[in-house]
Structures are given as structure tokens and as C-alpha cells.
Specification:
By secondary structure, the protein is α/β, with parallel strands linked by helices. The chain is built from 3 helices and 8 strands, in the order ββαβαββαβββ. An 8-stranded mixed β-sheet has the order 1-2-8-7-3-6-5-4, covered by helices on one side. The longest helix has 12 residues.
Length: 171
């Protein structure tokens, strides 16, 4: 099991809670995602922000694993939306307090989305507040498309070629 990455206690300013985490490797980033998943409840939306290669998909993989999904999690850049749910041979763990099984995970990517209208055509707003969890990569492209009160996770990659990631979490 990976070591717990360095962490700063949450601070609250203007009703928004912010915390910071530093990870030193892909494995630590994924492990932090698994740990973060324990905070989620059905209906939650998680905005994953960062430049190309920052680790948004790695974090999404960790979150899905933390929710108990055992299948492959890949970037939905070209198809815009993946849906992960229990199927034959794949089971979710009962990790959410408000459900007997893990909800469907909707994994969206706005990288190739050209306009707010195109983003709206994906129908993400129909998934918000439902009985699933929604992960949105490249959410910073169209922040107006995300619901108020969602989780915002910004991943910074301070030096290309190194594995250090600075993760800022706001809710």
C-alpha cells in the first residue's frame, strides 16, 4: 500500500473548504484518489482540472478504484463520456453510506468539446444530483456547466519530467 501523501488541513474561507495534497508518484496520486473516494456520496460531481499530462485520468482511476470499480478506467477524450457499472465478473464494494452498492460512475471529458453548447449536448446536467457519481475531466474549460457545490480538484504539475503533483481540493 502506498504511503499517505503530504497533506495540509482544510481551511475554510467564504464558505469554501480548501485543502492541499502533494503526491510524489503516479501510484501516490492514484492512492490519494482511492482515499478521496470515501468522501463521495451519490449525486456528487467532481471537477478534475489540470493541463495535459497532469494526472486527471490517474486520479479518476483512483477514485473509481476507491468506489470499488474493478474494470479498466480510460480517458474518455474522444467519446466524451464513459459509464462504469457493475457487470458480470465486476462488482462494486458497498462503500457509500447511502447505498447498498456503489452507484454508476459517469466519467466525462471536455478536452475536445468546442463550445458550451457542445458541452450541454453531452447531457451532463441530467446526471447531476442523480444516484450516480459524475467525474468531469477538463472541467475548467466550461466551469459554468458544473453545478454549484461540486468538488473542484486542480492538479498542478510544477516541473515536467518529474512526478510531483500539487493537488488543490475545494468544496
Amino acid at each position: 500500500m502506498a504511503a499517505t501523501p503530504p497533506y495540509s488541513p482544510p481551511s475554510i474561507e467564504g464558505g469554501v473548504t480548501t485543502e492541499y495534497v502533494v503526491t510524489q508518484s503516479t501510484e501516490e496520486t492514484m492512492h490519494w484518489g482511492e482515499t478521496f473516494a470515501r468522501r463521495l456520496k451519490t449525486g456528487d460531481v467532481v471537477a478534475l482540472c489540470g493541463e495535459l499530462g497532469a494526472g486527471k485520468t490517474v486520479l479518476a482511476q483512483g477514485i473509481c478504484r476507491g468506489l470499488g470499480y474493478k474494470g479498466e478506467v480510460t480517458s474518455p477524450s474522444f467519446v466524451h463520456l464513459h459509464r462504469y457499472e457493475a457487470s458480470v465478473g465486476q462488482t462494486f464494494l458497498s462503500v457509500l453510506p447511502d447505498r447498498n452498492v456503489c452507484p454508476t460512475i459517469h466519467h466525462a471529458d471536455l478536452y475536445l468539446t468546442k463550445s458550451p453548447e457542445d458541452a450541454a449536448d453531452l447531457g451532463l446536467d441530467e446526471l447531476y444530483g442523480g444516484d450516480g457519481i459524475v467525474l468531469v475531466e477538463w472541467a475548467q474549460r466550461f466551469p459554468e456547466m458544473l453545478p454549484e457545490g461540486c468538488w473542484w480538484i486542480e492538479i498542478e504539475w510544477p516541473k515536467e519530467g518529474e512526478n510531483v503533483r500539487l493537488i488543490k481540493v475545494r468544496k
